[in-house]
Design brief:
With 382 residues, this protein is α/β, with parallel strands linked by helices. Helices cover 46% and strands 14% of the residues. It is built from 17 helices and 13 strands. It has a seven-stranded parallel β-sheet, with helices on both faces. A six-stranded parallel β-sheet has the order 10-9-8-11-12-13, sandwiched between helices. Helix 1 links the parallel strand 1 and strand 2. Helix 1 packs across helix 7 and helix 1 crosses helix 17. The termini are close together.
């Protein structure tokens, strides 16, 4: 069984790591397989890519495509152009894609046109908002896939409603949580809080953690200004730490919004904490980020994966969107939708600061064994 797995962006690395480990474990136990990893390099910066490979102990990919950034159309087309000869040369039994980035849909489409079966990990998630590029990617990838691996029961219902046969849908759990549980003890030993000067001994207070990268939030000057203004208001009450995506940092500078933030932290220095200012950091690796997230009083994010991770950690999460493709994080988790409205954001943050962490009630099958179920299913079906 030859499986060609695809990654392209930071969330993909977290999802693929436990699957690669499960394939390796199956091979050790005598179930032969050949695993080939392709990195499209949709994310290519060391802080967004190489650091994650190191933290998650992912071996060097057999293929790196060097795609880089670009518009959705240009990037998708370039991935397809560079991925096609890999599939032709390798002749895999299956192409496995994860998540909802451009690499996901581009490689699924390429494989399907070449007659190679496709498996989609994290299938069936729907925000029902087609203004989100990721929603288009999800729908198209699921339509092209023969094996649909889901993380929550709502995803199963979405796929059935869209007409996908029940025998193609496999409820296996969440590989993001596999990685989190596997790395949690290691993250507890991280010294990132000490390096940043965020320990209670240093300041006697906690911090809020922000991430934000979606075009709907960062590409409109008025919306970005309103969001940063809300974070800045919160920073009068609690330090606000923001490991900033390169795209978001560029927009802050381009739109003249640097008065809301401190200049970027210099390597090896402590976070600059000043009331009313957001403390920017460079993107950081998975282990340090997991420690930073688990220690936060509240997380404010537009990331889908962080809604799931904060649910597992019991950390209150304010989701900076009006919808989510992960409804289980609202019903069984710690996420609350607050959109981009400053009043809702600040009210949600104040509530989180008063109420603290929530008791952990993990959704079904979020037990760290999703990757094992995926690999077992592939052996049974292939």
């Amino acid at each position: 069984m030859k499986i060609l797995s695809v990654v392209g962006a930071r969330p993909n690395f977290v999802k693929i790591a436990p699957i690669l480990r499960a394939l390796a474990a199956a091979k050790v136990s005598g179930r032969h397989n050949e695993s080939v990893l392709v990195h499209t390099e949709q994310h290519y910066d060391d802080n967004m890519s190489a650091a994650f490979f190191a933290d998650l102990r992912i071996e060097r990919p057999q293929y790196t495509l060097g795609v880089g950034s670009g518009t959705h159309a240009v990037q998708t087309a370039e991935i397809m152009r560079r991925f096609e000869p890999v599939v032709i040369d390798e002749r895999p039994d299956l192409v496995l894609v994860v998540g909802d980035v451009n690499s996901t849909v581009a490689c699924a489409l390429t494989a399907a046109k070449l007659g190679v079966r496709v498996a989609h990990v994290e299938a069936g998630l729907r925000s029902f908002d087609r203004s989100m590029p990721e929603e288009i990617n999800r729908i198209a990838t699921d339509a092209l896939s023969e094996y649909l691996f889901t993380t929550e029961e709502a995803a199963n219902a979405n796929l059935q409603r869209e007409g996908h046969p029940a025998e193609q849908i496999f409820f296996v759990g969440n590989v993001m949580i596999d990685s989190l549980l596997a790395c949690r003890r290691l993250a507890e030993r991280s010294q990132v809080l000490e390096r940043l000067g965020l320990t209670r001994d240093s300041y006697g207070r906690d911090y809020a953690l922000v991430t934000m990268h979606r075009p709907s939030n960062v590409d409109a000057p008025d919306k970005l200004s309103a969001l940063l203004g809300a974070f800045s208001d919160l920073a009068w009450e609690i330090p606000v730490i923001f490991p900033v995506h390169p795209r978001t940092r560029k927009r802050i500078e381009e739109f003249g919004l640097t008065h809301f933030v401190h200049p970027m932290l210099q390597p090896g220095g402590s976070a600059v904490i000043c009331p009313g200012r957001i403390s920017l950091l460079e993107p950081i690796g998975y282990i340090d980020f997991l420690r930073l997230m688990s220690g936060a009083r509240v997380v404010l994010t537009d990331s889908g994966g962080m809604q799931e991770e904060t649910t597992c950690l019991g950390v209150p999460c304010l989701t900076l969107r009006e919808n989510t493709e992960r409804p289980v994080t609202l019903t069984a988790g710690t996420s609350t939708l607050v959109g981009a409205d400053p009043a809702r954001i600040l009210a949600g943050a104040h509530g989180a600061l008063q109420n603290g962490k929530r008791p952990l009630t993990l959704p079904p099958l979020w037990d760290g064994r999703a990757a094992e179920r995926i690999v077992r299913t592939l052996y049974e079906r292939l």
